[in-house]
Backbone:
């Protein structure tokens, strides 16, 4: 099989993984004539999942052969798909070639389980090692980590990769047991914990190194000591949504637990895509894409707006996010007693709960209110959706007469029911 055919198979097989955003890395480039490439800027290849989502990526699998038989996965052992496998040299060469042609900004590399988790992980690490050590490659590298791999392999992976990720796969242990019986929820969490320890240690050592500059000559200006590096862009994970009956409340509770326990950079939610020859244990239809979108919005509320998971969705309220309205507006409509909020006096936490006000807008309002009274015009100048904000706030020139009216607030959203355009 020639390289192009392998690429066609192994790039296609990798497109189901959504956890490939490259935010949070350390800036690295070759502007001083040293090394190759940079990890900044746009232009990483893009691919489309069958349901039309655009996923930014440079993504390939080392191989789509896999010993495991996860029911939701197109690459599972029992799947009838064409198989291919890159050699380490081929992946290195492809990455460098694409890089030189300015087609990509980095490498996202995952793999099916070849002989054993350790063997597979060794191969992934070796690709990253060669790129960094032999080719001085300064682009972004994201390695998908094999959870059962030995601890020293995870440690080596972190030396070369900007980001490591371990897929939690399903939101619950029971779901994982039912759909991916060979995967071990305990091993996944142990590996996440190990990565967290290494990341925290590297950060602490980097801070320490910054405090103790190195002076190479007596008269030279001290330079920061080289900091140890370990997955500077942190770790992330991906959860499949809609492959089992787990509700949004449980999904968000699992995410909150993962953020708290392992300090993940991101949890990615990937709406289940039906696959060919699927098991009867899987649903026939994909969940609505808007569910995935609402989960990302809810996740954002937990990470940046101070919401707890059970405030956004809880079993008491049916466990599912409302699809027709974003979770922040849904929370505000369910808590009319908290509104209107006095923009001139309310604490930051409460302002962050006002629908339509983002983190930047709130911080600017906090600065502005120190020096003058705030009026509706100030909202306009901040480019916030004023119509959405006004029913929930008190301003010098605006006092809503009654509590926000859900029917009026939801009317525009209902009128413009979004439609997924056909891509192909
Ligand atoms: S281990 Fe990964 S590649 Fe293999 S079947 Fe499971 S999800 Fe697919």
Residues:
């Amino acid at each position: 099989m020639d390289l192009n055919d392998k690429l066609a198979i192994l790039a296609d097989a990798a497109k189901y993984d959504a956890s490939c955003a490259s935010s949070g890395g350390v800036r690295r480039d070759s502007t001083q004539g040293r090394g190759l490439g940079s990890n900044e800027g746009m232009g990483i290849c893009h691919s489309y999942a069958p349901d039309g989502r655009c996923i930014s990526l440079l993504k390939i699998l080392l191989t789509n052969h896999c010993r495991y038989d996860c029911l939701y996965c197109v690459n599972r052992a029992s799947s009838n798909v064409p198989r291919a496998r890159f050699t380490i040299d081929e992946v290195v060469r492809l990455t460098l070639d694409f890089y030189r042609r300015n087609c990509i900004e980095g490498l996202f590399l995952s793999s099916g389980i070849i002989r054993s988790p350790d063997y597979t992980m060794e191969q992934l690490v070796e690709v990253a090692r060669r790129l960094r050590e032999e080719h001085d490659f300064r682009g972004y590298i994201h390695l998908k980590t094999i959870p059962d791999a030995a601890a020293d392999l995870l440690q080596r992976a972190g030396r070369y990769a900007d980001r490591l990720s371990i897929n939690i796969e399903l939101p619950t242990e029971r779901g994982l047991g039912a759909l991916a019986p060979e995967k071990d929820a305990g091993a996944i969490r142990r590996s996440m914990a190990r990565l967290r320890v290494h990341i925290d240690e590297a950060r602490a050592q980097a801070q320490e190194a910054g405090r103790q500059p190195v002076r190479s000559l007596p008269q030279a200006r001290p330079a920061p000591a080289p900091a140890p590096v370990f997955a500077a862009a942190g770790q992330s994970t991906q959860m499949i949504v809609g492959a089992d009956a787990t509700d949004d409340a449980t999904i968000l509770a699992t995410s909150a637990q993962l953020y708290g326990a392992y300090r993940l950079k991101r949890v990615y939610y990937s709406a289940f895509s039906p696959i060919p020859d699927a098991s009867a244990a899987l649903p026939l239809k994909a969940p609505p894409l808007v569910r995935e979108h609402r989960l990302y919005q809810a996740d954002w509320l937990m990470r940046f707006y101070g919401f707890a998971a059970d405030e956004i969705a809880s079993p008491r309220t049916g466990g599912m996010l409302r699809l027709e309205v974003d979770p922040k507006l849904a929370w505000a409509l369910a808590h009319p007693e908290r509104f209107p909020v006095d923009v001139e006096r309310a604490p930051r936490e409460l302002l962050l709960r006002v629908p339509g006000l983002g983190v930047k807008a709130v911080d600017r309002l906090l600065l502005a209110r120190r020096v003058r009274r705030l009026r509706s015009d100030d909202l306009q100048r901040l480019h916030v959706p004023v119509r959405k904000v006004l029913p929930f706030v008190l301003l010098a020139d605006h006092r809503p007469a009654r509590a926000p009216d859900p029917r009026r607030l939801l009317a525009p959203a209902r009128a413009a029911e979004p439609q997924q355009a056909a891509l192909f």
Residues 66, 68, 70, 73, 75-76, 112-113, 180 surround iron/sulfur cluster (CB under 6 Å). Strands lie at 46-48, 54-56, 59-61, 106-110, 140-144, 163-165, 235-241, 266-271, 341-342, 393-394.
